[in-house]
Design a protein that fits this description.
With 159 residues, this protein is mainly alpha-helical. It contains 4 helices and 2 strands, in the order H-E-E-H-H-H. A two-stranded antiparallel ribbon has the order 1-2. It is rod-shaped, with a radius of gyration of 24 Å. The two termini are 26 Å apart.
Length: 159
């Protein structure tokens, strides 16, 4: 990785703007974009974060597909629960576990898909870049502290 001193300056500017916005009462989230630049997002511009323990899917429509599979699993579990009734037996109560799991996957996937769709639409309207994965360690971003913590100094000038 190549050290870019201009990137540190841009990060410091974005962080200062972020701190000012938070001090004014705005709900902001400091994140790296998909290109690696630092950006201060409004709270409603962040949907879900792929790779952070929630989902490995990275788009709203991918999450909608996951939700649709949950719905299919729920319907199949209901069919498993009720199918013994047609033969005069008692319901297959073990299918309740499948119904619960599939119902949760459908509900959770739908909520994540809806939130990401709204966030994607807002980012397009506001011209915000696509967020990357993970969060930013704010302790390292204190203006001037980051470079000192890494032990980097400005390169010597060539004479």
């Amino acid at each position: 990785m190549v050290y870019d001193p201009e990137r540190d300056l841009r990060d410091d500017e974005v962080y200062a703007e972020h701190k000012e916005a938070v001090a004014n009462g705005q709900k902001r989230v400091l994140r790296r974009t998909s290109t690696g630049e630092l950006h201060s997002y409004a709270g409603d511009e962040i949907g879900f974060t792929p790779g952070r323990g929630q989902a490995q899917v990275s788009s709203w429509w991918g999450m909608a597909i996951l939700s649709a599979f949950g719905c299919l699993g729920f319907v199949a579990s209901v069919a498993m629960l009720l199918s013994p009734l047609f033969q005069g037996d008692s319901p297959s109560w073990g299918a309740l576990w499948g119904m619960g799991l599939a119902g949760f996957i459908a509900w959770y996937g739908f909520n994540l898909s809806r939130d990401e769709y709204k966030a994607t639409r807002l980012r397009k309207q506001r011209g915000s870049p696509m967020p990357g994965t993970g969060y930013v360690d704010v302790q390292l971003l204190e203006t001037g502290r980051r470079r000192a913590k890494r032990g980097r100094r400005a390169p010597p000038s060539c004479v």
